[in-house]
Amino acid sequence: MAKLMPSNSLGFLLVDTARLFRQEFERAVVEAGLSLTPGELRALAYVARYEGSRQAVLADRMGVEPMTMSAYLDRLEGRGLVQRTTDRNDRRAKVVNTTEAAVSVFEETKPVATAVYERLVSGFNEQEREIVHDLLTRVRQNLTNEPQTGAEDPMMPSTRSAMPSAGMYRSA
């Protein structure tokens, strides 16, 4: 059978790397015995990144069905980590925000996320880390018309000034 694409095409590498990163993060979360499931942590990180977004928008950005996001948000709201309020522009819709209690969850998660991040960029110097970050950011911008929030993932070290190697996950 003929090969249609090389196995190291950029698209394959991006998808496979994302899959491996997600598996590694989920394994680390389970092993660490954190207070939330990997899915709940992802949902909470998306709420933090896109504060004040509607549930349906969060589901779309996270790549899950609206009912899946609703279930995650039900559990997070039950723990007092997010708050859903009626959208001022459409009373049928709910917007979601993190609460102060979410800060402690992010603090609990940072060591795990940092360890996974360090494994991801093992062998990269600071300049290479910045180059990879900048290039992937440009790739994402090329593929989306969504506004870029500029928000950092609250569970991960900043790629700019506070890297663990310089001082302290990004999501799509």
Tell me about this structure.
By secondary structure, the chain is mainly alpha-helical. It has a domain at 28-143: Arc Repressor Mutant, subunit A. Helices cover 55% and strands 10% of the residues. It contains six helices and three strands. The chain has helices at residues 10-32, 38-49, 55-62, 66-78, 101-120, 126-143; strands at 53-54, 82-87, 90-98. Strands 1-3-2 form a three-stranded antiparallel sheet. A hairpin with a 2-residue loop joins strand 2 (82-87) and strand 3. Helix 2 crosses helix 4 (66-78) and helix 3 (55-62) packs across helix 4 (66-78). The radius of gyration is 17 Å and the shape is globular. Residues 159-172 have low confidence and may be disordered.
